[in-house]
TrEMBL record:
Organism, as annotated: Kosmotoga pacifica
UniProt-recorded Gene Ontology molecular function terms: coenzyme A diphosphatase activity; metal ion binding
The keyword Secreted appears for this protein: no
Keywords for this protein: Hydrolase, Magnesium, Manganese, Metal-binding
Boundaries of every Nudix hydrolase domain copy: 6-142
Protein name: Nudix hydrolase domain-containing protein
InterPro entries linked: CoAse, NUDIX_hydrolase-like_dom_sf, NUDIX_hydrolase_CS, NUDIX_hydrolase_dom
Cofactor(s) it depends on: Mn(2+); Mg(2+)
Length: 178
């Protein structure tokens, strides 16, 4: 690739919080006023600024979009990169364990926060979607919610790693019903 062909880079935070002892992913519904991916379900994040570390991008965007300050982040761990299929952006996700449930939505960027129990993704089979380009992506069809594209692929590729990290850090303690 020549310099002009390089993909743009973005970073997202995959925020996890416990509610009554259960881990939840925090998703956002992007504002319908945005030019890029309006109304879609996503993680807080955005395009990397020049010279900025990717994890810094993710934390900055989380602060800007949902008002979670860095003091609430217990732990950050790099997850597997994916690429958006439509806008061709390289997305670098970072798991963040949050200690507090204090949020201030930037309504210009985020319409709502959506809390989804992590185990719901374990119990829900992802479905393949064929795009008009012929490329394939996936979606999760949840009660009252469809999570698809890069966000669904991040969840799919990271779910087991997230659960392992949560268990190994002692952040949560699952009861094994085997």
């Amino acid at each position: 690739m020549t310099g002009g062909d390089a993909l743009r880079e973005a970073a997202v935070i995959v925020p996890v919080i416990t509610i009554e002892g259960e881990p939840y992913l925090i998703l956002t519904r992007r504002s319908r006023k945005l030019k890029s991916h309006p109304g879609q379900i996503s993680f807080p994040g955005g395009i990397r600024d020049n010279g900025e570390e990717l994890w810094e991008t993710a934390l900055r965007e989380m602060e800007e979009e949902i008002g979670v300050d860095r003091d609430s982040v217990l732990f950050v761990h790099c997850l597997e990169m994916t690429e958006t299929l439509m806008s061709r952006i390289e997305v670098h996700p970072f798991l963040a364990l949050l200690s507090r449930r204090v949020f201030r939505l930037n309504k210009e960027e985020v319409e709502e926060l959506i809390f989804v129990e992590l185990s719901l993704f374990q119990r829900t089979k992802e479905e393949v979607i064929r795009l008009p380009s012929g490329e394939e992506t996936i979606k999760y069809r949840l009660p009252g919610l469809v999570v698809w594209g890069a966000t669904a692929r991040i969840i799919d590729s990271s779910l087991e790693k997230i659960l392992d990290i949560l268990l190994n850090t002692g952040y949560i303690d699952f009861i094994n019903d085997d």
